[in-house]
Amino acid sequence: MKVKIICVGKLKEKYLVAGIAEYLKRLQAYCKVEVYEVSDESIPDNCSLANEMIIKSKEGKKILDKIKQDDYVVLLDVAGKEIDSIMLAKQMENCMISGKSTIDFVIGGSLGHGQEIIERANFRLSFSKMTFPHQLMRLILVEQIYRAFKIMKNESYHK
């Protein structure tokens, strides 16, 4: 199984980089993980709705360039479906059973996702109705992916 995490923007905060690196190291026992950072577009002050759509579309195209046709795409989206960790593990396991070799988790930029990437998603996942910084979301995501593998393997970690 291969897991790709595709994110808009660079991660700069050292404490987040360290936390993510720890979970990526732990995940090596379960899967191959690749992290792709695509550049974010600059957002002008007083950005119009039309400009926001253009920015989201440009970022979406960069994301789509990292996704292969057969990949199962999980879009992190505040408007997505909220599930618990056990259900995430079951969904990932179902992907593997159904022959999907790659699951892509996509974290958009600060404006959210463009329509093209929303339409490409196989599943839209919400971690909460709250809004989180997308940099922090990376850490939360890799921890939940790790937790999902521990659940699938019936190993202690998830309580």
Automatic annotation (TrEMBL):
Binding, S-adenosyl-L-methionine: L76, G108, F127, S128, K129, M130, T131, F132
Highest taxon of the lineage: Bacteria
Heme among keywords: no
A molecular-function term among this protein's GO annotations: rRNA (pseudouridine-N3-)-methyltransferase activity
Keywords (A to Z) from UniProt: Cytoplasm, Methyltransferase, rRNA processing, S-adenosyl-L-methionine, Transferase
InterPro entries, per the entry: Alpha/beta_knot_MTases (IPR029028), RlmH-like (IPR003742), tRNA_m1G_MTases_N (IPR029026)
GO cellular component, one term: cytoplasm
Predominant place of localization: cytoplasm
Gene3D superfamilies associated with the record: 3.40.1280.10
Compartments (UniProt record): Cytoplasm
Catalytic activity, reaction form: pseudouridine(1915) in 23S rRNA + S-adenosyl-L-methionine = N(3)-methylpseudouridine(1915) in 23S rRNA + S-adenosyl-L-homocysteine + H(+)
Top-level enzyme category: transferase
Enzyme Commission number: 2.1.1.177
Subunit structure: Homodimer.
Function: Specifically methylates the pseudouridine at position 1915 (m3Psi1915) in 23S rRNA.
NCBIfam families the record matches: PRK00103.1-3, tRNA_RlmH_YbeA
Similarity comment text for this entry: Belongs to the RNA methyltransferase RlmH family.
Name of the protein this chain belongs to: Ribosomal RNA large subunit methyltransferase H
Gene name of the record: rlmH
